[in-house]
Amino acid sequence: MVRILNVEPRDFTEPARRVLLGLGELVEEELDREQMLRRLPGFQVLIVRLGHQIDAQVLDSAPGLRCILSATTGLDHIDLEQARQRGLTVLSLQGEWKFLESVSATAEHTWGLLLALVRRIPAAFAAVRGGRWDRDAFKGRELMDRRLGCVGLGRLGRKVAGYGLVFGMQVAAYDPDPIKWRDGVRRVESLERLLAGSDVLSLHPPLNEQTRGMIGKREMELLPEGAVLINTARGGLIDEAALLAALSSGRLAGAALDVLASETGKGLPHSPLLAYAREHDNLIITPHLAGATKESMAKTELFMAKKLAAWLQGQVWAGARP
């Protein structure tokens, strides 16, 4: 009987749990790293979200592990090369284009962050909650006729670009290898040209060796003065020191981030960006919750449970990209 360990089971949806229970023994325990290292031996399947780094040390602790299940599109929390060397299968949402088109949570959060930033909603609400009613202190900026630049025009980039069109923005995108383009979006042939013409820059590429740190000091200097930056992709796309400098100097009018380069572990409480956000309202940070809606998590957890069932039974996964 296959043994399945879910180390991030909080609010795991019941339909997905029922599928997993039908596959073998399911153990659900919210564990920290040291606890996970001790608990993993004897399990063949490990289920994670984004709370753990699955590296060589973790994999060495579980010689019987056959599969890692992660209901995410990004996999930078898993050392894929180490998994490959050990013959492990990693099941995720990567490549599940048809299914992912039905999940809009991250794109919606991206747009929510943008509106919150340019209309200064968090700061205005904090003032009202503190007993202050001063509309003139929180004048924002409109989006209509402003230039939106999307880095990456995959599933999320296309949705965000569509929101921009609905809001009457001029929308452009840079993507060296698009799966498909969106009508109404101007194609830009280089990142540099996109930056120079973007009042709002929204990041949507995967994190890999080519994209890590792709928005640094030079790139921020190419943005028009007073531009804003939105990142709901991965924190490692941005040079955070350069971002902090651009915000502090006023070169950037603001930024809204759902991701940081070091989201977990001991470094997070000491993040200079978090320290800046405590004192300034032109930086909004949320805790990597863009994809975390009740609807999206219910869909993805059930989808991944069924994908695991197909893999364990040696079936061709019907949900996979053709």
Q: How far from one another are the termini?
A: 31 Å
The CATH topology annotation of the largest domain reads as: Rossmann fold
Counting H and I runs of at least 4 residues, what is the number of helices?
13
Strand order of the largest sheet: 8-7-6-9-10-11-12
Q: Structural class per helix/strand content? A: alpha/beta
Mean residue pLDDT: 93
Largest sheet: 7 strands, parallel
Secondary structure: number of strands: 12
Instruction: Give the ordered list of helices and strands.
Output: EHEHEHEHEHHHEHEEHEHEHEHEH
Could you walk me through the main structural features you see in this protein, from its secondary elements to its overall organization?
- By secondary structure, the protein is of the alpha/beta class.
- It has 2 domains: 2-100 and 294-312, 3-Layer(aba) Sandwich (Rossmann fold); 105-285, Rossmann fold, CATH 3.40.50.720.
- Helix content is 35%, strand content 16%.
- It has helices spanning 14-21, 33-39, 56-60, 80-85, 97-100, 105-118, 121-129, 155-166, 191-196, 217-222, 240-249, 272-279, 294-312, and strands at residues 2-6, 24-28, 45-48, 67-70, 89-91, 147-151, 170-174, 186-187, 200-203, 227-231, 252-257, 283-285.
- The chain has a 7-stranded parallel β-sheet, sandwiched between helices.
- β10, α11 (240-249) and β11 form a beta-alpha-beta unit.
